[in-house]
């Protein structure tokens, strides 16, 4: 698996020596997971069914931990190249409205550890 490389913080395209950079194998899978977790349901015009239902279930007052668990596990596990979700934890700070996903996946190439912070300013 390979993909065009994007900057890890703002998802802008990365150029190296004037050309688009490419990521391969586990790095490409990790990038794809991150993109999927940051995509709002209906955001992508070519597939309005793709994305996380942030407005419906995540960015609400007192979100259901069970629903959050189901949504994010499903997004991770349905990413091409992900074979197994080895560890998973959601840390939700209601005061700051910041959610941190801490998880580990086994891909077709290797195991990858993630700490993904979602929300906040």
Give your account of this protein's structure.
There is one protein chain. With 121 residues, this protein is of the alpha+beta class. The protein has three helices and seven strands; from the N terminus they run ββββαααβββ. The strands form three sheets. The protein has a three-stranded antiparallel β-sheet. A two-stranded antiparallel sheet has the order 1-4. The radius of gyration is 15 Å and the shape is globular. The model has no long low-confidence stretch (mean pLDDT 91).
Short description:
This protein is of the alpha+beta class and 121 residues long. The chain has helices spanning 25-37, 54-58, 65-77; strands at 2-4, 15-16, 19-20, 22-24, 82-93, 98-107, 111-119.
Map the helices and strands:
Blueprint (H helix, E strand, L loop, with lengths): L1 E3 L10 E2 L2 E2 L1 E3 H13 L16 H5 L6 H13 L4 E12 L4 E10 L3 E9 L2
Percentage of helical residues? 25-40%
Structural class: alpha+beta
CATH class term: Alpha Beta
Overall body shape: globular
Calculate the mean pLDDT score and round it.
91
Largest sheet: 3 strands, antiparallel
The end-to-end distance, rounded to whole angstroms, is: 33 Å
Number of contiguous helices:
3
In the CATH scheme, what's the topology name?
Nuclear Transport Factor 2, Chain: A
Please compute the radius of gyration using only Cα atoms: 15 Å
Give the number of domains: 1
Read across the widest sheet, the strand sequence of neighbours is 5-6-7
SSE sequence, one letter per element: EEEEHHHEEE
Total beta-strand segments:
7
């Amino acid at each position: 698996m390979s993909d065009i490389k994007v900057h890890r913080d703002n998802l802008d395209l990365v150029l190296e020596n004037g050309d688009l950079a490419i990521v391969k194998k586990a790095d490409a899978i990790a990038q794809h997971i991150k993109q999927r977790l940051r995509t709002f349901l209906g955001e992508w015009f070519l597939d309005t069914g793709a994305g996380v239902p942030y407005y419906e279930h995540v960015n609400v007052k007192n979100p259901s931990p069970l629903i959050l668990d189901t949504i994010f596990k499903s997004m991770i596990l349905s990413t091409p190249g992900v074979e197994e979700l080895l560890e998973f934890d959601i840390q939700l700070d209601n005061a700051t409205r910041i959610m941190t996903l801490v998880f580990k996946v086994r891909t077709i190439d290797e195991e990858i550890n993630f700490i993904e912070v979602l929300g906040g300013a």
